[in-house]
Amino acid sequence: MAKKYISLQGKFYLSEIANGVAGAMRHLGNVPEFELEITTDQVEHQESTSGQRTTDFVLTKTTGVNFKGQLEEVDEANMQYILSGMKSEVASVTVTDQVLGTIKVGQEIKLDGYNLTQVSFKTGSTTIAADKYTLDAIFGTITFNELIADPVTASFTTGAVSHTTIASEFNKEYELFFKGINTATGENMAVRLWRTKKSPETTFPLIHEELGQYEISGQALSDTENGLDPTLGLYGHVVTIPAA
């Protein structure tokens, strides 16, 4: 009799659900780890006739399906998903005579913008020479190398950037789809979860020795309409596709 082992590889997709309808599938990129966990809340009944108080019945009150995995590709959509955030585009603006106040030598100051151009600093109407400060235009910071006695103002133009907020979007649901191949048998396997909701709890490492990996976790929610069809399942189903 042939052995039926399993060793899966494959691709994961999310489809954002709007008004109860799953949209286009979005590939999550390389996913080195992903697993499903089935949970239950059970009540055990012990009989009182044998003198051994054995368990003679188990009532399953509730069920649940959780997931957890790791993402390696952090494009804009994955960034929003990992951080439970919202993305916005910030246009270029020109800032004139922003007050920095009294400056201390060696103190690094964050200006309000990134990829700065046309940067200048003044005391009153006098422009401060560029050799008196060190500008990091990419990150929008300035360090003055010499004492400036009078209050300083800054003028500059910011570059267009995108912002992704942190822990601000908790209501989105996604259908999850897995296109898998069982490398032990050559058969294909699909997994479909009708409704998933990611937990906002995660870690987001900012320093790496190797390529970054970002943890995701959450739960599958039931679809009671699909649950009426025993072939579809309340939470979803696993499909085994024979090799051609």
Could you explain the architecture of this structure?
By secondary structure, the protein is mostly beta strands. Helices cover 5% and strands 50% of the residues. Strands 1, 2, 3, 4, 5, 15, 16, 17 and 18 form a nine-stranded antiparallel β-sheet that branches. It is elongated. The model has no long low-confidence stretch (mean pLDDT 95).
Keywords, separated by commas or semicolons:
5% helix, 4-stranded antiparallel beta sheet, mainly beta, single chain, 244 residues, 9-stranded antiparallel beta sheet, 2 helices
Short description:
The protein contains two helices and 18 strands. It has 244 residues and is mostly beta strands.
Number of helices: 2
Shape: elongated
Q: What is the assembly state of the chains in this entry?
A: single chain
What profile does the largest beta sheet have? 9 strands, antiparallel
Mean pLDDT: 95
**Radius of gyration, taken over Cα atoms and rounded to an integer in Å:** 28 Å
Alpha carbon gap, first and last residue? 20 Å
**Secondary structure category:** mainly beta
| Proportion in helices | under 10%
Strand content: over 45%
The low-confidence parts are none
Number of strands: 18
The SSE order reads EEEEEHEEEEEEEEEEEEHE
